[in-house]
């Protein structure tokens, strides 16, 4: 997931994306605990995607606060 793709989304879409990523991270942790995880690299990828979404949400919030 590219940061530019995320910047084009609305804050509501970003929050929905964040929720989906958090659910996926939970499922991946559960799979790792039970020994069913096939792609260990996906765990790190999801964590980085969550960080990207949070960063862009904070950028948008700061820009909105600065305008007001």
UniProtKB/TrEMBL annotation:
Q: Which Pfam families does this one have?
A: Ribosomal_L29
A GO cellular component term found in this entry reads: cytosolic large ribosomal subunit
Asked whether the keyword Acetylation is assigned, the reply is: no
State the superkingdom. Answer: Bacteria
| InterPro entries per the UniProt record, alphabetical | Ribosomal_protein_uL29 (IPR050063), Ribosomal_uL29 (IPR001854), Ribosomal_uL29_CS (IPR018254), Ribosomal_uL29_sf (IPR036049)
List, in alphabetical order, the GO biological process terms annotated in this UniProt record.
translation
The UniProt keyword set, sorted, is: Ribonucleoprotein, Ribosomal protein
Q: Which SUPFAM superfamilies has this protein been placed in? A: Ribosomal protein L29 (L29p)
Q: Which PANTHER family match?
A: 60S RIBOSOMAL PROTEIN L35/50S RIBOSOMAL PROTEIN L29, LARGE RIBOSOMAL SUBUNIT PROTEIN UL29C
Q: Which family does it belong to?
A: Belongs to the universal ribosomal protein uL29 family.
**Protein name, as recorded:** Large ribosomal subunit protein uL29
Source organism of the structure: Oceanicella actignis
Q: Which gene encodes it?
A: rpmC
